[in-house]
Fold this protein.
Amino acid sequence: MNFDLTPEQDQLRDAVRALGRRYGHPYFVAKAKSAEHTTELWHEAGRLGYLGVNIPTEYGGGGGGITELALVCEELAAAGCPLLLLVVSPAIAATVINKHGTEEQRKKHLPGLADGSQKIVFAITEPDAGSNFHRLGTVARRDGDDWLLTGRKVYISGVDEADHVLVVARTEDASSGKLKPALFIVPTDAPGLEKSKLDMEILSPENQFQLFLDDVRLPADALIGESLDAGLPALFAGLNPERITVAAMGAGTGRYAVEKASEYTATRKVWGGRSIGSHQGVAHPLAHAAVQVELARLMIYKAASLYDAGRDLEAGVSGNMAKYAAGEAAALAVDTAVQALGGAGMTTEYGVATLLGAVRAGRIAPVSREMILNFVAQHVLGQDKSY
Ligand SMILES: Cc1cc2nc3c(=O)[nH]c(=O)nc-3n(C[C@H](O)[C@H](O)[C@H](O)COP(=O)(O)OP(=O)(O)OC[C@H]3O[C@@H](n4cnc5c(N)ncnc54)[C@H](O)[C@@H]3O)c2cc1C
């Protein structure tokens, strides 16, 4: 058993940490408050190769795995820049295209995803399906060689900054019963595709959208893979990377919050010469949060190494557990940090309450804590499915 990163992974972690710190949380917050995107950070990370660490070298990537991408997600978040689009574009879209796309699709999209010049976001959630994606109502029907897509999606992140959206649909002849998904790469400016920005209580430079697809016409090669049979494995291919990287983002955010609070409580003095951190009522909740974050990190890197070793089923269990643990740990860490900072905790300047919305959302998206508990109850504990 080995808990050490390789020297290359160590170097990557240090380099990403340095990049993240150069931008920092004030940059992230300023972009969010002025309704701008973190374009400079994204492009610099792309130029330095951090967005493509998991993409094969023949398509311009670093040739690493989800472990490397998790390190990137964690370190940027630990510097106060939790970029959700890392989870969507390099983790989900690049994995799906790399593993199940055609050679043409790989050549067309992966180099741009690797250098950050292209973003592909991901649309599965629907207003009437929610957690139950067997109920997806977005339908793809053939029209000659073309496809026509009709349906609605909701809470889709980053549509305003992406070139394409990877849409999960079902084919017309499979509109009921068990889902046989078909995935399409849809240009965000395709005629018939409308987006409407949602007002979310999350301070973030990344936005969520409702999408309306009204007979969006797509060429045959917009379908992921050589045939409709690629749909289900393609959809599942995205799930483990999504859970592992979003968990890494949560753990990084937790580290950031604990670190901020610890710095503050070690120096803040309101009772004579002793720091407030010397009081166990302040220090223990922070120490508890630090333990939870570190436990989540263990499960994240276990899941990542299982995934990179091709052990998908085991990675599925660990990835779900990691996502659950990191979601809870991040929410606990940020809330505990706010409390430890007192009034300062609620200011923008101290940069912890600014993360409350994001970590709260991390217990819901991209898969809720309840759906993970359902998964664990069913697949680990052998319980009957109740829904
Ligand atoms: C910030 C943010 C970004 C997002 N980005 C994207 C994106 O880019 N692309 C995308 O496709 N989606 C995205 N989502 C959507 C997200 O994946 C969904 O919100 C999530 O899967 C839950 O679906 P829902 O909101 O419809 O909740 P529902 O399915 O309506 O569930 C509501 C509540 O009921 C619980 N529940 C439902 N069924 C069960 C059950 N059987 N047992 C126990 N509890 C249950 C859920 O856990 C939840 O707490 C995003 C959401 C947020 C908040």
Summary: DSSP finds ten helices and seven strands in the chain. Residues 88, 121-125, 130-131, 155-157, 202, 208, 361, 364-368, 370-371, 374, 387 surround flavin-adenine dinucleotide (CB under 6 Å).
